[in-house]
Amino acid sequence: MPRTRNRAEYEATMQTIKRLARKQMAAEGTAALSLRAIAREMDVTAPALYRYYPSRDDLITALIVDAFNALADAMQAADAACECSQYAGRFRAVGRAYRAWALEHPTDFQLIYGNPIPGYEAPDDVTVPAVERGFAVIAMILIEALAAGVLSALTDEAIPPAVHDGLARIIERDHIPMSPAMMYLLVASWTRIHGMVMLELFHHTPPVVGDANAFYNAQLDHMIRELGFG
Fold first, then answer.
1. Which residues contact 179 (CB under 8 A, 6 or more apart)?
2. Per-residue pLDDT tens for 136-190?
3. Which residues of 155-173 are buried (b: 16+ CB within 10 A; e: fewer)?
4. Which of 75, 123, 135, 187 has the most CB atoms lying inside 10 A of its own CB?
5. Could you give the domains of the chain?
6. End-to-end Cα distance, the chain
7. 152 vs 36: CA distance, rounded Å
8. How many angstroms from the chain centroid is the CA of residue 133?
9. d(Cα 218, Cα 93) in Å, to the nearest integer?
10. CA 81, CA 224: separation in Å to the nearest integer?
11. Contact, 88 vs 229, CB < 8 A?
12. How far is it, in rounded angstroms, from Cα 120 to Cα 139?
């Protein structure tokens, strides 16, 4: 029983540290994250936090993994709420979930997709699996739609040679079960969705388009028609 209680207290303290880290980043920017500042707010010494996060980089990594997993969870939940055969609806729902999560968690979204933090390098073995979860949601919709014959097929010849070669190298290196053409569709879809969200998040598009939500949804519908399953 004491062990369970101690573990619960340990987990609660870790969550408190992360909550204060997000608060600090929201107020001062991601690069300003400081274990010493968090320790002061908790009224403990900085070394006391090292048993939870040995370094600032360990805390940043934990926050990044949390953010990517939370984003992927939102995308997966949106996909799961749709009928499997409704590929256009699934794509639209996942795109909306991506934007909604970013707007609800701007600090986390900027941490994973904003400016790099000076001196920090994300450990691929820890962060990449979390990153891939979100990509996998969109990829599966495209793969299943293509297999069902409701997605316009793209030939390798339609991809710029330099881009095709780059995608092929990544596919071979990471053993991705996807053709360069499908990888191209995945990356193109993600960059368009992500670009709109980033511009909105930093208040660039709302003054121009007026209703950012209507603009985003219209663009999703346009992408669906372009992909051929709308």
1. 156, 171
2. 999 999 989 988 988 877 888 889 999 999 999 999 988 888 889 889 988 999 9
3. eeeebeeeebeebeeebee
4. 75
5. 1-54 (1.10.10), 60-227 (1.10.357.10)
6. 56
7. 54
8. 9
9. 13
10. 18
11. yes
12. 29
